[in-house]
Amino acid sequence: MPLSFTHHGAVDGVTGSCHQLTLPDGQSVLIDCGLFQGAETSSDGAGVNQLEIGFALDQVRALIVTHVHIDHVGRIPYLLAAGYKGPIYCSEASALLLPLVLEDALKVGFTRNQALIQRVLGVLRQRIVPLPYKQWQTVIAGVPGLRVRLSPAGHILGSAYVELDVQLGPGQKQRVVFSGDLGAPYTPLLPAPRAPMAADVVVLESTYGDRNHEPRKLRRQRLQALCEHAFGNRGTLLVPAFSIGRTQELLYELEEIIHRHRQRPAAPGLAWGEVEVIVDSPLAADFTAGYAQLKSHWDKEARRKLAAGRHPLAFEQLTTVADHAAHLRMVDALARSARPAIVIAASGMCSGGRIVNYLKAMLGDARHDVLFCGYQAAGTPGRDIQTYGPRGGYVELDGQRFNIRAGVHTLGGFSAHADQKDLLNFIGRMHTQPRQVRLVHGDDDAKRTLAALLRQRHPGVEVVVP
Ligand SMILES: [Zn+2]
Questions:
Q1: CB 43 within 8 Å of CB 241
Q2: CA neighbor of 413 nearest in space, from 219, 209, 196
């Protein structure tokens, strides 16, 4: 195999995604450059506190971004600081959203110096090259040469899987597909991803390689039931969620519940039409606005709702909390009063962000409930709350112990990730089977289970777990 793969992150876990494809002459491209979260570390020793780029950049010709989640793009500022001078290819929607994400990441994790942030963003904007879906773009001309094409991945708005055509010699071509994070077929707002036609090698994510999700209708019913349970206790339902993708999906489903049950009780004395939904995150609010601006990328169902005069991401029961003082007032008011509400706040794994203040104030009170609807990586407070909360345990937040008396629930189907069946379909529906599938971005069990199933169904395909 004249091409070589280096997986700098998202090998033993699901964060810090950064893959490198190197051509025989040493030139290479990077796919994603993400931040590590929780206890996860990379094979080259970079960990949660290690932001440096631990590999040489002089031969790196391009960075290709699959989508703007922080575990796929968070180290881009460090890549620029390390001297990377090449283009950053991404989809048109990602090109709009990427500066928002990195601005927030820099504020939270790096500096409050606005001039410095603006300088980094200025460099970033110069390097971004938006690519329309389904269009080939030459990245490295000549032989060996390389072209890239992006296709919708259905994971979050702007997400793409990446096809790379490598020209190795006259008539000698290899196609490599990097899946990035793939979405489930019924992700609200987004059209379902379609499998690529053919590839020699597929680098496939495997986050949910060992699980299948609940059908969408069931999970909406469970979401409704959990809300009604929380309101019945006169408590708040706290939903830690990533600002990008999950928050908009949740809002979309909540709007549907409110729309259908407007006149019916959500709790004694409270109609669904009166339920308060609070998005407490400036980034989530910016993103929701970004999503609203990119309506042309929405799926048919969402556009039908718009045509019927509904506002799936901006309904009247929705409140957004902008500044920090208002946030602190909201935490205090909800913790003290018995005012039923749904609060959606980042971070999705409770490792920072405004959700932490809510958890500190409310975890000890049995009236409240916490609802996880996304993957919780090992070592994050989210995983600890999920594991120890139901047993009456505690969690450490900012070095302090908090006992958990609030209800703790998990709603599996809300993942914006493809499940086992969808991952198998991504390979199974290709017209020409790949020679090799490399599994990344998953826990050991997920990768092992998925590898076994792929080997069983496609005996001719070599399945590699790097
Ligand atoms: Zn993602």
A1: no
A2: 219
Q: What six digits make up the tokens of 206? A: 């495997």
Q: How far is the CA of 384 from the centre of ligand 1 (A)?
A: 21
Q: How far is the CA of 170 from the centre of ligand 1 (A)?
A: 37
Cα of 72 from ligand 1 centre, angstroms: 7
Q: Cα–Cα–Cα angle for 241, 246, 248, nearest 5°? A: 115
Q: Give ion ligand 1 contacts, CB < 5 A.
A: 69, 181
pLDDT band for position 10 (50/70/90)? low
pLDDT of 213: 82
Q: What is the pTM of this model?
A: 0.86
CA 155 to centroid of ligand 1, rounded, Å: 7
Backbone CA torsion sign across 338, 221, 364, 283 = negative
Q: Which two tokens stand for residue 122?
A: 């200025």
User: Lowest-pLDDT range, 44-48, 198-202, 459-463?
Assistant: 44-48
Pairing of strands 201-205, 172-178: parallel
Quick check: 268 pLDDT over 70? yes
Taking the centre of ligand 1 as the mean of its atom positions, its distance from the CA of residue 119, in whole angstroms, is 26
DSSP state of 43: T
Residue 45 has pLDDT above 50, yes or no: no
Could you tell me the distance, in angstroms and rounded to a whole number, from the CA of residue 181 to the centre of ligand 1? 5
Residues 6+ apart with CB under 8 A from 78: 33, 51, 52, 53
Q: From ligand 1's centre to the CA of 416, what distance in Å?
A: 8
Q: 49: pLDDT confidence band, cut at 50, 70 and 90?
A: very low
